[in-house]
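Appendix B, record 7
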Amino acid sequence: MNVSDEEKRIFISYINELLNTEQVKEMQNYIQHGKTSTFTHCLVVSYYCYLAAIRLPFQFDIKSVTRGAMLHDFYLYDWHIPEKSHKLHGFVHPGIALQNARKHFTLNPIEEDIIEKHMWPLTVHKLPVYKEATLVLMIDKYVSLAETLHIPVIPKDYKKLLRELSYCKPAY
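Structure tokens (predicted):
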């Protein structure tokens, strides 16, 4: 999929505030699926969500979908290390990510819905309200499965994107 320089510039502008915080950078220290860091996972999900939102024939709040996707796994721990606080990681991490995001950023209701409900249907009682949250949960499932099965899912221009986000170290 060809992405214009202007589209990349807009994408970066939407998440720049998030990426410039130590807390979001800390996500580079935790593995999400396979060998993928939580940071890379969230950035890839955010990028694909942004591209889908600008290309699908629906009206999305593109900035909210991009930001919410970047923060959807903002839980800041290694879920592979057994610990009582995240024993049921799949069920509890959306709430932890939402608490962390609220602590560090001003969120709108769409962004909160994305973060809190991205694990549906696992979290049966947390059905998405906004179409942006549904988009993120679908793309998150696709990216997560690909990462777990070691199927290449990183966009072709990912390394270039990371260079443009010069403060981010590549995780691939």
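Remarks on this record: The helical segments are 5-19, 22-26, 38-55, 62-71, 89-104, 109-117, 131-148, 158-164. The radius of gyration is 15 Å.
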